[in-house]
Amino acid sequence: MSTSDYAGLVTRLAALVVDAIVLTLVVPVMANGPPSMWAAITGEAPGWLKSVSQIAAALLPVLYFGLLWWGTGQTLGGVIFGTVVRRSGGEHLGPVRSLLRAFVGLLLPIVWLIGLVFILWDPRRRALHDRLFGTVVQRKARRA
Amino acid sequence: MNDHAPLSRLALGVSVLAGERLRLFDKPAPETLAVLVGVAERGRDRARRALRSAGDTAKQMAPRPPRRVREFLDEARARGDKTIRLGRLEAKGWLNRTMDDSIRWAERTIIPRVVDDMTPHIVNNVVPKVLDGVMPVIRSRVVPVIIEDLSTDERIRTLIQEQSHGMVSEATEELRENSARADDRLENSFRKLFKA
């Protein structure tokens, strides 16, 4: 595979922006939606519902990235820009590896973003976290 | 064909054509008619000759033996048949010419005037009334049926889906190609920068 078969910095950042927009819209809905609906129906929402909603909203980004990388290798940004996350050998990611990759990325976003600069000189366009987790981001082959 | 056919033959031709159009008889004209026409023609000729030569009248009116009668009828039939065919042909030509001339004349003089006079009336009076009467019916009864048919027609739905899918695919493909080009350009710039 040549360098151009892997997604570069611009594509990966663009896909990341799409995912960020999606999460920016969905996370507040997840955090405030159920308590608001409860309040609209019966009055004050119970504390446990607020806590559960907050926890679900906090976990949502990790689950979004982790489960989608594990399942299809593609988040929504990846679907739009035609990129897919695979292991270095081309295999699908396992659940642990994908969830860990998502967790670390969300925990250390600055390191994640700075690590993307590694793409510019790596022959397989791997970022720092790709090297760390043994992954690559490939371009999906065009349909004939 | 003679442009100035005798009026009687022309009238006969028109009658034959009319008879054919009305399916009173088939083409060619029936034998009886031919005989009648032939007899009439002969009678006319004889009458003319009789007028010219009154002295021969008695001889012409003398009784005939049966053989002479048969010859007379055969000759009359042949002559009548020829006259009918000729009259028919002449009448057809005359009718065609007359119709063509009439249509050309109407196109040149009558129709433009009628159209010029009628158009404002139709546009200002007739069309609004028709629209006022018809549009509510079209809106309430025709359009819903058409929309229903179109929305349930599997071919239309497939067509719309394919078009939408095609447009989205095309846009996505363009986006991907642009981002791929941007990737390459950025990396090339980076490499040049650090080489330099």
Protein architecture, described:
Chain A has 144 residues and is mainly α. Chain A has one domain (3-139). Chain A has six helices and two strands, in the order αααβαααβ. The radius of gyration of chain A is 18 Å and the shape is elongated. The two termini of chain A are 19 Å apart. By secondary structure, chain B is mainly alpha-helical. Chain B has five helices and no strands. Chain B has helices at residues 7-21, 31-52, 57-60, 66-152, 154-195. The interface between A and B is medium-sized, with 16 and 13 residues.
Topology:
The complex is a heterodimer of chains A (144) and B (196).
Chain A: H1 9-42, H2 47-71, H3 76-81, E1 83-87, H4 95-107, H5 109-115, H6 128-133, E2 135-139
Antiparallel strand pairs in A: 1-2
Helix pairs in contact in A: 1-2, 2-4
Chain B: H1 7-21, H2 31-52, H3 57-60, H4 66-152, H5 154-195
Helix pairs in contact in B: 1-4, 2-4
Low-pLDDT stretches of chain B are: none
* N-to-C order of helices and strands of chain B: HHHHH
Strand neighbour order, sheet with most strands of chain A: 1-2
The total domain count of chain B is 2
User: Poorly predicted ranges of chain A (pLDDT <50, ≥5 residues)?
Assistant: none
What structural category do the secondary elements of chain A indicate? mainly alpha
Biggest sheet character of chain B: none
The value of Rg of chain A in angstroms is 18 Å
Range of helix content of chain A: 55-70%
Question: How many distinct domains of chain A?
Answer: 1
Q: Write down the secondary-structure element order of chain A.
A: HHHEHHHE
Defining key terms:
A: 144 residues; two-stranded antiparallel ribbon; elongated; B: 196 residues; 2 domains; 0% strand
Please outline what is shown here:
In chain A, 63% of the residues lie in helices and 7% in strands. Chain A is mainly alpha-helical and 144 residues long.
